[in-house]
Design a protein that fits this description.
three-stranded antiparallel beta sheet, single chain
Amino acid sequence: MKPDPLAGTNYKMLSPIDQGGMGEVVLAERLEDGAEVVVKLLLLKYANDPRLVDRMEVEAQILEALKHPNIVEVLDHGVTPEGRPFFVMERLHGRDLADHVDAHGNLGVYEVVRLLSQLLAGLEAAHERGVIHRDLKPSNVFLAESFGSIKVKLIDFGIGKVLGNTDIPAPAYPTEAGTLVGTPQYAAPEQVKGRTVDARTDLYAAGLLVYHLIAGRGPFDHSANMGAFMRAQLTEEPKPPSFYCPDPVPLELDELLMRALAKDPADRFQSASEMRHDLQQVEALLRAPVGYAATTTWDAQELRTLALDPPSDSLAPPRVPTLIVDPKKAALPEELGETRTLIPRAPKTLIIELPKRRTYTSFAIALLASVVTMLMVGWLIVSYS
């Protein structure tokens, strides 16, 4: 039987839930009142790694500060006697979006709009506190059952970025410039380039996530390999989701998603609230007499329909903890050109040092050397003659 990693704390492990490259998640009991909670711990082998310890502590601080109905709530955090940092989340019932799509297929258009509305409400709250998620994808969106309906919860802020305009402590070991942080399949162009990210980066990922739900595929999934895929993210204009979706998609929703997926952040929505404002107009259209009916169903034992709560204006465990890749061992192929298998359905989160750009200076030196060599060869031929 596996030893209890929470021994010596105020919690007792009931059962393991999941384990990733950096941490593990367990179902636990709070000793003081017997309440069931979910605990995320750093793996023991990383307990002495200051960067990973810092990342875990920052994630706990972010989630403790972001009290919002559409963001998973952290109740407590601490360190085990073995030196493993952990934080405690409220236990919720449900499944993440990736698991739901696996079990039932994509959502209907109206359901997608309501899901996006709640997702944007959570992002708006995070952005107002100066926090960028940086890793939006289906496995980081949890569908929590709540009194017969579904509430969307943002989870896993393990690589969240803390901006300077907040009272949340910034990481002691911030990610270096020129590093790709996130899941490539849902990365914005500025992430692919290793450039500065902001709230508009999350809005791109939200648009891309919804695009997948509507179209059943991503806009660049036709790429033959990873190099082509990432080049398409930087240069190729995506087709609207209606191009791939067999069901009717309102023109207004097409236009909203195309704006969210603009290559230049200046051409996107500038805030989650602005994007939600336009989304409300789409939702009003879908509520009209000639609308789009919700079609997704759950298992017979669960909810009969996916009844999404309206966004809150007025825990459940992450399935796979974030995988942190050592930049020195995970450099992308030069010029992003090597053939690689496309990203699987549940892609990993990556932190990758991008290849350095070739400078015009080095190119000029190489060209000059070639010219000098040719002149010397020509001179020798003439001299010999």
